[in-house]
Each structure stands twice: as structure tokens, then as C-alpha cells.
């Protein structure tokens, strides 16, 4: 058990700026954030200082003692001694600060008479645990839809976008497919181009960093999202709507119990104007006459239930529209889907798409 816990902790260690997982330095103040170099530590300090909180110094440190903190220093330190991933690096952080994080309502994404959704928090200025317990869990359990803005921060978001654009140029994207085809042409149903990524491919390091941050947030939600016990996820589906009015008609991600319980989408569209560019995601919550309209704006993270509770569509897009989607699996439903698929007891004419799970824990 202790070994599994240690392995889990190592998996959660990565540079907060670039996602690198080797030769890390730990913040000596909060003991929960890591950096691959003093340069990245200093570059990220403007964002990290908003959430960096000093740990209880009365508790004996589990690792080597930190260096002394320069009192009142608003800058990250000039010196960041090279240590291994089990030692701390001094941040030079000031005493505990609080900020009034700007929160944006999502009224612009909802019909005028839509449900009263809470404000969307800024993912960069809220710890994953706090974001999960105070926002994502109650929002999902009440509405089945949850939006988090500024999830990765502009610099990291732009680096993810560059990875996606470079991937798109390789020609690896293919036409998106549908499980049950009722039209002569798949393009009549969906017009996106997609490719599947596990993050280990060359040039996809930032995409892997993104999914690790998604996984970290979902870990803090696990066991509290409905009755689900999440034990895995799909690879990341990187999708591009090339404009020209391409769309995805109204559909349900998981209509036949294939194990997917939560859909998680990260948007990468800088300066997106829905009135000009279209491309809204419209969700039609079951049992409601309201419609949620989600603007696919840059650095926005979206969660919603994957089953029949949330039919949705992508409206015609008139500019290139990028998104990265992963689906999280419920352990019991996934096991039943596998058994059903292997025994051939599934509904005739419906293929249960299992995909390849990737354990987020």
C-alpha cells in the first residue's frame, strides 16, 4: 500500500510551467508544487504566488528542511539549488496572501432563461482539491454540467495549442466516426477531423501535461461525482473542425452503457467570437426545456455527464476550432460493457466502443 501511495505521489510530480517530470525541485513554502529549473520557478511565480500557502512549520518535515524564506520578497529567488525530486527548492515566497480572483459568470453560454449556473472559477488560481470540492463536485451533482475557465494559464495553453497545430500538420487527423450510422455519409453527422493521443508521442508532451492536470482534478472528485467510481479514461481525442460550416449533429456520447461516465473537454480557440465563428456546443439537459450554450473559448475546461442525460451538438463552425476530449470510465459500467462485448450479448447492430483505458490514478 505504501509503495502504491509513493508511486501515485511520483506520478503527480511535474513542472508547473512545462510539465517535465524529471530532476524536479519542490517549492519550499507550500511543498506541493514542482519545477524543473530555477528559471521556470521564477517565470511561474506570478501565478504560483496566488495559491502558494505556507505549510504548518510546527509539523516535522518528511524530507530535508527548506531554506529560509526572505521575508516580504515578492519575487521568486535568484538562487534555486539543484536538488532531486525528493528535496525542496526555496520559492522566496512572501507571507500568506489572499486575492480576489476575478470570476466570470457563464450567462453568455446559456439561454437567457437557462438554469442558474454558478460563476466559473479561475483554474489557475485555485488548488485542484479546492476546485474539486468547492466547485466541480457540487456543480456536476446539481447541474450535470461544469465550466472552469483559465484552467492551464495563457502561456501553458498556448504551448498546448502549438502542439496541437503541429500534430495537425502531420496529417494524422482522420474523419471522425460514429457508432451507429443512420446516414449515407458520416460527414452529414459530424465534420471534425480527429486523432487519438496518449501523450507519449514525440511532440505531444504538453498534451500529456494537460491530461495529467485533468486527471489530478478528477482524482479529487472521485467517489463524489454521482455514484461513480472512476478507475480509468480513454486516450485524448484531439479534434479539429476546419471551418466551412462543419458541425456535429445532436448526439449522446454514451447511449448504450459503454462505461464512459464523464466527458471532459479542453478548448484551445484564441479570440473566439461565437457570433462570427459559430461553433457553440449546445447541451440539452434531460428533463429540462433549457439549453446550455458553451462558447469554446481558449483555456476553458468543460465537464458533463456522458450518458443520455446530456444530448448535445456542435453548431456549424466557420473558423478552425480545436478541442481535446477525454472520457472517464465508471468501474462497474465499464466491466459490464466489456463482458457484454466479449460475450456478444450486446444489442444487435450496436458496437460497444471500448477504446484503450489509461489509469488516471
Question: How would you characterize this protein structure?
Answer:
- The chain is an alpha+beta fold.
- Among the domains are: 11-49, no CATH class; 128-177 and 186-346, q2cbj1_9rhob like domain (Jelly Rolls, Sandwich).
- The chain contains seven helices and 15 strands.
- Strands 4, 5, 6, 7, 8, 10, 13 and 15 form an eight-stranded antiparallel β-sheet that branches. A four-stranded antiparallel β-sheet has the order 9-14-11-12, with no helix packed on it.
- A hairpin with an 8-residue loop joins strand 11 and strand 12 (292-294).
- Helix 3 (128-143) packs across helix 5 and helix 4 crosses helix 5.
- The longest helix is centred in the middle third of the chain and has 17 residues, at 205-221.
- The model is unreliable at 1-11, 57-117 and 346-361 (pLDDT under 50).
In total, the number of strands is: 15
Tell me the number of helical segments per DSSP (H or I, 4 or more residues long).
7
Largest sheet: number of strands, sense, barrel closure: 8 strands, antiparallel
Global outline: globular
Shape-level CATH architecture of the domain at 128-177 and 186-346: Sandwich
Overall pLDDT level: 76
Amino acid at each position: 500500500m505504501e509503495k502504491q501511495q509513493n508511486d501515485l505521489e511520483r506520478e503527480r510530480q511535474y513542472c508547473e510551467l512545462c510539465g517535465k517530470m524529471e530532476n524536479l525541485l519542490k517549492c519550499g513554502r507550500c511543498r506541493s508544487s514542482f519545477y524543473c529549473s530555477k528559471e521556470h520557478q521564477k517565470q511561474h511565480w506570478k501565478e504560483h504566488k496566488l495559491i502558494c500557502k505556507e505549510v504548518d512549520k510546527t509539523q516535522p518535515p518528511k524530507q530535508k528542511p527548506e531554506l529560509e524564506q526572505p521575508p516580504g520578497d515578492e519575487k521568486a529567488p535568484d538562487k534555486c539549488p539543484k536538488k532531486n525530486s525528493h528535496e525542496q527548492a526555496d520559492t522566496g515566497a512572501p507571507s500568506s496572501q489572499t486575492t480576489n480572483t476575478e470570476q466570470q459568470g457563464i450567462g453568455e453560454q446559456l439561454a437567457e432563461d437557462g438554469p442558474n449556473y454558478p460563476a466559473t472559477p479561475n483554474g489557475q488560481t485555485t488548488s485542484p482539491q479546492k476546485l474539486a470540492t468547492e466547485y466541480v463536485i457540487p456543480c456536476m451533482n446539481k447541474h450535470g454540467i461544469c465550466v472552469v475557465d483559465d484552467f492551464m494559464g495563457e502561456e501553458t495553453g498556448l504551448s498546448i495549442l502549438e502542439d496541437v497545430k503541429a500534430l495537425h500538420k502531420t496529417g494524422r487527423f482522420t474523419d471522425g466516426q460514429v457508432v451507429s450510422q443512420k446516414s449515407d455519409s458520416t460527414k452529414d453527422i459530424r465534420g471534425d477531423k480527429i486523432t487519438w493521443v496518449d501523450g507519449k508521442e514525440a511532440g505531444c508532451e504538453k498534451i500529456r501535461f494537460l491530461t495529467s492536470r485533468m486527471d489530478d482534478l478528477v482524482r479529487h472528485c472521485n467517489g463524489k461525482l454521482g455514484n461513480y467510481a472512476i478507475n480509468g479514461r480513454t486516450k485524448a481525442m484531439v479534434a479539429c473542425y476546419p471551418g466551412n460550416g462543419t458541425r456535429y449533429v445532436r448526439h449522446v456520447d454514451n447511449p448504450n452503457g459503454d462505461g464512459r461516465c464523464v466527458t471532459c473537454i479542453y478548448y484551445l480557440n484564441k479570440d473566439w467570437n461565437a457570433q462570427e465563428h459559430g461553433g457553440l456546443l449546445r447541451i440539452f439537459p434531460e428533463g429540462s426545456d433549457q439549453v446550455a450554450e458553451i462558447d469554446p473559448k481558449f483555456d476553458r475546461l468543460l465537464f458533463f455527464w456522458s450518458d443520455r442525460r446530456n444530448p448535445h451538438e456542435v453548431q456549424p463552425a466557420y473558423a478552425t476550432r480545436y478541442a481535446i476530449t477525454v472520457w472517464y470510465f465508471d468501474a462497474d459500467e465499464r466491466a459490464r460493457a466489456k463482458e457484454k462485448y466479449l460475450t456478444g450479448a450486446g444489442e444487435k447492430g450496436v458496437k460497444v466502443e471500448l477504446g484503450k483505458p489509461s489509469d488516471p490514478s
